[in-house]
């Protein structure tokens, strides 16, 4: 009874989709510990000597190259903490001197389930308006910046932390897309935005005629903020009414931050959130992340080259 039961079980196991000898050998390899090589080879009508020759054969050159490429792709993907899709992984490998097709990289990533984190579209919080003066969009008539500290952009976004919202303000250099200052706080106010701008002025020390573009939020229209900008001889530009795309570079950064960092992780405390944002901006976004608009260079690298 035991022998016939084992035979019936072996027949059930030996139902496989492959039609060739190689597929049969793979099936034997998979089930060899459970049923034994001799029984499986006899049942599948394949040669035992042929199986052992197949099992000890070195992988083909193409298989070895594919395995090596997989390791390199996975390393780049893991180094980006899953933030890179196939175009950026491809560009990173090219920078390392590897000659490989972009479609091949995409195929390897697809086969092994490596997908970039999805960036979520978010709703901006409605900001209070008052009668403080709104300014024109001077960017529409300005030339594209040719070096650092010619044009900056600043904005504030909200981040959900537990049951409340906190706020992140940034200042971005429009030439290199580098985040030159940032601040995380629990309250949205003119003082909050002004402190972020003050840090940017301290760290970059721009000359006069700097153009700063922001949205029309009260924190940027406030008298104290305007006084700070006048002190540094800054020409202040603002979005047109209802045109959030006028500040597209900062909006793009916020979308990237939320998609690559905040969407994938839950934070409990401000200290924890601040630590991760600092690591993302200073340890990845400015220094390692390849930007397609900069020719797949990092912001700091782009500033150094140019």
TrEMBL record:
GO terms for molecular function: nucleic acid binding. Pfam families: HTH_21 (PF13276), rve (PF00665), rve_2 (PF13333). This is Integrase catalytic domain-containing protein. Residues 141-306 form the Integrase catalytic domain. InterPro entries: HTH-like_dom (IPR025948), Integrase_cat-core (IPR001584), RNaseH-like_sf (IPR012337), RNaseH_sf (IPR036397), Transpos_IS3 (IPR048020), Transposase_IS3/IS150/IS904 (IPR050900). GO terms for biological process: DNA integration. SUPFAM superfamilies: Ribonuclease H-like. The lineage of its organism: Bacteria, Pseudomonadati, Pseudomonadota, Gammaproteobacteria, Pseudomonadales.
